[in-house]
Amino acid sequence: MKLKVYADRMSQPVRAVIIFCKVNCINYEEVRLDIAKRQHLTPKYAEINPMKQLPAIVDGRFKLFESHAILIYLACSFPGVADHWYPVDVFKRSKIHSVLDWHHSNLHPGPVTIVRNTVLAPALGRPFNPEAAAEGEKILSASLAKIETVWLKDNGRFLLGGNQPSIADLSLVCDIMQLELLDESDRDRLLGPYKKVQQWIENTRNATNPHFDEVHKILMKAKEKRQNQRLKGENHGGGGSDMKKPLVSRI
Amino acid sequence: MKLKVYADRMSQPVRAVIIFCKVNCINYEEVRLDIAKRQHLTPKYAEINPMKQLPAIVDGRFKLFESHAILIYLACSFPGVADHWYPVDVFKRSKIHSVLDWHHSNLHPGPVTIVRNTVLAPALGRPFNPEAAAEGEKILSASLAKIETVWLKDNGRFLLGGNQPSIADLSLVCDIMQLELLDESDRDRLLGPYKKVQQWIENTRNATNPHFDEVHKILMKAKEKRQNQRLKGENHGGGGSDMKKPLVSRI
Predict the structure, then answer these.
(1) In chain A, which among 133-162 make CB contacts under 8 A with chain B?
(2) What is the pLDDT of residue B240?
(3) Whose CA, among A34, A125, A137, A209, lies 20 to 30 Å from B40?
(4) The dihedral of CA A17, A23, A26, A27: what is its sign?
(5) Strand order in the sheet with A3-7
(6) pLDDT tens digits for A95-136?
């Protein structure tokens, strides 16, 4: 029975898992659930993942949730996954665990908080919350500074310093990619000070393309749709939407 | 060269690492830093852990931070650690990763937020913040309910259902133990509805004693000190301290 990946590509950890499967030629079936339509909250999906979050996988009789755990499981269970993704060497592997653990409580809440409280708020049925978004900016900046000065300090192409990405690069970069939903000027303002981070995002993208771009298409489409809505609003004399204001003015 | 563990036992992930070392007869040196005295924020410690958090380890030339990554490293690198702590079996191991990942963004912020914003606030130089503590209570209750109904639903002694604890049991239970700092009535109110969780805490304690109790002594002493200060305040006609009010009234 084929591996099933329960997914909404609008979710950044979902994208990391999907890209990993594609890059490593893992044969899988993508079971699409729409978070905006609350399809991850049904009792049927709770049988797959009782935490009602995406992604989750089913491999035969084995069910698993949490994207880092899934990435490690896939790296260990499917033949042909190159060692650099999750090295057998205990020291390298431990560094990956350290980055992934740090990510949970540091980088991850940054982009999530910004995007949820600004551009994604209407789709999620939430109010715009500039204070929460500002808090998200602080978390993001502090975390990007740490990535730049700790893991990328030796000018390595990837977080562990090697020439090939690990699951940690993929997970963290997919999170930062969520900022694509913002206006270009806001994204540039947030990422601008971190040149090494920008290069590392590009390195991870190049190392996983064409899959990286294909899986992120949904973000680009959402961004385009939003921009069109804004232009339409402006052409109709303002439209009165928060969407037309740049993020910086809403925070 | 002996393994060094940089530690303040007031920190719950530190306690998990220390208990793990003791239970598994890992020969280590405990390098004590006092968080209340900001000793984890010095440039000297930043050379060990640039994130300036505890715990961290140094094993020969290898440095590592993040407690889950440390527990996994120790389980894989030191001879004599029983398999149940971090099983070789990929399915069991993946479930441990899943619990540990879930813990970061779900259970962990609960006790931390409650305790930091109430009883530990003065020692940390922070104001009491009843709103933040109330938010922490919500997070804690939601997470305990999930532990009770997902991982403990089959009445197993431990989270993975076996008869021996894993690193996930140790990590999560040490976090919940932080609630010992609260008044007995507040702790009972918060844990009271979760009978299976209470039994699981006791199972983890029994499986790791006498080390569990020894490493948690610091919490019990801090609790006793706080109670004595309160009594002293009451004997002097009130004392005017927030300490005398039960947590429930401060939230």
Answers:
(1) 146, 149-150
(2) 40
(3) A137
(4) positive
(5) A28-32, A3-7, A56-59, A62-65
(6) 999 999 999 989 999 999 999 899 888 877 888 899 999 999
What is the rounded distance in angstroms from the CA atom of residue A24 to the CA atom of residue A1? 18
Shortest alpha-carbon distance between residue A64 and chain B (Å): 7
- Which superfamily is assigned to B3-81 in CATH? Glutaredoxin (3.40.30.10)
For A52-66, what is each residue's pLDDT tens digit?
A: 999 999 999 999 999
DSSP A27-51: -EEEEE--GGGTGGGSHHHHTT-TT
Contact: B66, A97; criterion CB under 8 Å: yes
Domain ranges of chain B: 3-81, 85-244
pLDDT level of residue A237 (50, 70, 90 thresholds) = low
Is residue A72 less than 8 Å (CB to CB) from chain B?
yes
According to DSSP, the β-strands at B28-32 and B62-65 are unpaired
Q: pLDDT category, A238, cuts 50, 70, 90?
A: very low
According to CATH, the topology of domain A86-250 is Glutathione S-transferase Yfyf (Class Pi); Chain A, domain 2 (1.20.1050)
Residue B125 is predicted with a pLDDT of 82
Residue B46 forms contact with A (CB below 8 Å) = no
